[in-house]
Amino acid sequence: MILSFLLIFLITGGGLALTYLYEKEDSLIARLAAGNVIGAAIFGLIGFLLASFFGLSATTVLIALAITLAPLTLFVRKDFQKQFQANLNKAKGKLDGANLKKILRFGYYVFFFVLFWLFFERAMIETPQGIFTGGSNNLGDLPFHLGAIFSFTDGNNFPPQNPSFANAKFTYPFMADFLTACFMKLGANVRDAMFLQNVFFAFSLLVLLERFVFKLTNNRLAAKIAPVLLFFSGGLGFVWFAKDYWQSGQSFFDFIWKIPYDYTLRDDKFRWGNSMIVLFLTQRSLLLGMPLTLIALGKLWEIFNAKTQRREDAKEEFLMEEMEERKSPFLLFSFSPFLVGIIAGMLPLIHLHSLVVLFVLSTFLFILKPEKWREWISFGAGVCVIAIPELIWALSGSATKTSEFIAFHFGWDAGETNIFWFWFKNTGFFIPIIILGIFLTQRLGRDEETKRQRDEEKKIEPSLRPTVSLSLFYIPFIFLFIVSNTMKLAPWEWDNIKVLIYWFVGSLPFVALALAWIYNQNNVLKSVAIGILILLTAAGAIDVWRTVSKQINFQVFENDAVRISASIKQKTAPNALFLNAPTYNTAVVLSGRRSLMRYLGHLSSHGIDYAEREKDLEKIYKGEPTAEILMKKYDIEYVLISPEEQAYFGQKNIKINEEFFQKFPVIGEAGAFRIYKIK
Q1: How many CB atoms lie within 10 A of CB 392?
Q2: Do the Cβ atoms of 280 and 287 come closer than 8 Å?
Q3: pLDDT in tens, 98-132
Q4: Largest CA distance in the chain
Q5: Is a pLDDT exceeding 60 seen at residue 44?
Q6: If I label 12, which of 26, 195, 233, 657 is the partner at 20 to 30 A Cα–Cα?
Q7: What is the pLDDT of residue 328?
């Protein structure tokens, strides 16, 4: 674990140095948070390029690390040293002279760090009985990520093939898993690397979301409230929780240690799952992609809101200032938006939905404020430099059918439920408070505009308060919500949540501002604001508590599966092709070897047509006359027969013809797990 800590520290240092190029005024903690995700993105991209040509090894990883650390040379310049020293002094000043306000501020970060630590350590649990997960929705996602990681470390998967669907390009955004593989090549344990990366990505998200909301609202209390709303998101599930508790006949403390199920994602009752439970624990790509997207959104807001602030682009980053002095032809570009665009351009291999969201947002903002064309073009150019080559690479030769991703579908995942009741049940009072927040923004913005005009006449520096521009900035987020409720943006409609979560994030400034405004009115309304916050987060807090308190222990791989995977690594080539049942937890996952096909749920959600392979796979396991011909057709080298195969085909009333496979040599065996060598 120490090695993973050290690597994260070094990567963060390289990314932190780059923040001084696009953000002149920021706190040290915000720079560290941004540096963590920027450094990780750069390290991953460079490492992937090197591995694609020279293979993944300790040498290529160290070279990638050295290049990631190169921006630290910026601190040779005295102006950078002064800025960093100013950040450091300000950070020290916040810790000096402890008082209640400083203790609460420090405690806020400590609380979330401890929460993330306890929460993400439940993602993967290694025991003598096998590998378990403590996440209620992580049963299928954990082996998917492990399969990607081990395909890089043990399967020599370059250029990447889909380990779950052999001989097809691996187009799922895999960069978070590739980062874990890089750590492992330097000696880190897979669980430790995933765990620490998740913790620090989540903490970076916390800080960057707080910073983003503060930029938009200029309200520190609102900025503190927003992450609470995100990480404990939920709806009216607490009502069902109270009902279940009442009917259980148990004491409250007994019941909360044996909560029967989640209260934000449950069959057809609740579909807006808590973000920690259904997104950040299961979809590691979003955990890295969202903080990067928030960096870009913060810069887009600065551009969009520039005319309402006293400091406009006259205070461009120092590199831009120097170019202006020399009358550089690059004046058509604005440097800091271009650099942030480059950062955002790395999203295709990190989290493609985040890039799509940024495309929609920047298009709307360009239409709403075309006079800032230089900045919009600069940002777009930066994105294109990196994103277009990545997209061309990812989309060429992909087995994914893009036609499966777009279709009309009303109501997202509401089914037969009334759409208004569906959203109220799933998000509670969140949407009504958005409306209140928009109203307050408009009112405070108009008041601020009047006050600004008076202050300018008196030559007084204007105070910072929400502006009318904030409501306009929200328009593209509303568009995302409408589109996600009228169209299917993925083969599985529930996956629209990958876009809807950004509507939620874009709404947080309004909800947090409304709660902060209510809280600051008087003592009575303080209690009202706290009560509303509790209602908005109670269901999510229940689900998070259920995970943190270790109430969930799902076995993903039994011990024999772990043992047989070790045998596979020893006795087969890294690029060997296996036939196994299309389940999420086949032992082949842990070996890093390719499978003809794995979990059908993952394949369908990625838009892959697997029907023909599924039929052929069944024919082979049944030992039909065409079985050997089919194995030659797909170039199958090994066949796995285990309890997973028996259970899968048993559910379909198909009997595995073990006599057919007995003519092939057994090269590995562990308990009921057997590997037959076909070639």
Answers
A1: 10
A2: yes
A3: 788 888 899 999 999 999 999 999 999 999 999 99
A4: 94
A5: yes
A6: 233
A7: 43
Cβ atoms within 10 Å of 306's Cβ, excluding its own: 16
pLDDT in tens, 467-490: 668 999 999 999 999 999 999 998
* Alpha helices in 580-638, H assignment, sequence order: 600-605, 611-621, 627-634
> Cβ distance 153 to 162 under 8 Å?
no
CA proximity to 435, closest of 502, 501, 511: 511
CA 277, chain centre distance (Å): 12
> How far is the C-alpha of 673 from the C-alpha of 564, rounded, in Å?
7
Element (H, E) at 516: helix 497-519
Give the ranges where 96-236 is alpha helix by DSSP (H): 100-120, 141-153, 175-185, 190-217, 220-231
What's this model's pTM, rounded to 2 decimal places?
0.93
CB-side exposure of 427: number of CA atoms within 13 Å? 22
54 Cβ contact partners less than 8 Å away, ≥ 6 residues apart: 60
Percentage of the chain exceeding pLDDT 90: 83
The amino acid present at 320, given as its one-letter code, is M
Spatial separation of the C-alpha atoms in residues 641 and 579, rounded to whole Å? 9
Q: How far is 550 from 106, CA to CA, in rounded Å?
A: 27
Helix, strand and coil content of the chain, in percent to the nearest 5, comes to 65, 5, 25
State the Cα–Cα distance between residues 477 and 489, nearest whole angstrom: 16
- Encoded tokens for 58: 């300790």
Q: Which of 275, 288, 295 is nearest to 201 (CA)?
A: 288
Q: What does the alpha-carbon distance between residue 320 and residue 406 come to, in Å, rounded to a whole number?
A: 41
Tokens of 375: 């900045």
pLDDT attached to residue 452: 57
Q: Which of 203, 198, 68, 204 is nearest to 145 (CA)?
A: 198
Instruction: Give the CA distances from residue 60 to residues 5, 50, 119, in Å, rounded to whole numbers and listed in that order.
Output: 20, 6, 32
User: Quick one: tokens of 144?
Assistant: 């998917």
Q: Is 667 helix (H, G, I), strand (E, B) or coil?
A: strand
Q: Are 378 and 338 in contact (CB under 8 A)?
A: yes
User: What's the Rg (C-alpha) of the chain?
Assistant: 26
Pairing of strands 577-579, 638-641: parallel
* Distance in angstroms (rounded) separating the CA atoms of residues 150 and 163: 9
Integer angstrom CA distances of residue 560 from 145, 587, 646: 20, 9, 15
Pairwise CA distance, residues 308 & 305, whole Å: 6
In degrees and rounded to multiples of 5, residue 595 shows phi and psi of: -115, 145
Secondary structure (3-state) at 399: coil
Tokens 């997960």, residue? Answer: 133
Phi, psi angle pair for 409, to nearest 5°: -160, 105
Rounded Cα gap, residues 179 and 577, in angstroms: 24
- Kindly state the helix (H) or strand (E) to which residue 159 belongs, with its residue range: none
Q: Which residues, 6 or more positions from 298, have their beta carbon under 8 angstroms from its beta carbon? A: 208, 211, 212, 215
Q: Residue 245 corresponds to which tokens in the numbers above?
A: 């508790």
Cβ-contact 569, 589 below 8 angstroms: no
For residue 60, the cross-strand partners are none
Pairing of strands 487-488, 407-408: antiparallel
Tokens for 453?
Answer: 């005009």
| Residue 589 tokens, joined | 């996952």
C-beta separation of 51 from 158 below 8 A: yes
Strand partners, 304: none
Query: Is the predicted pLDDT of residue 166 greater than 90, yes or no?
Result: yes
Amino acid at 631: M
Contact in structure between 17 and 74 (CB atoms under 8 Å): yes
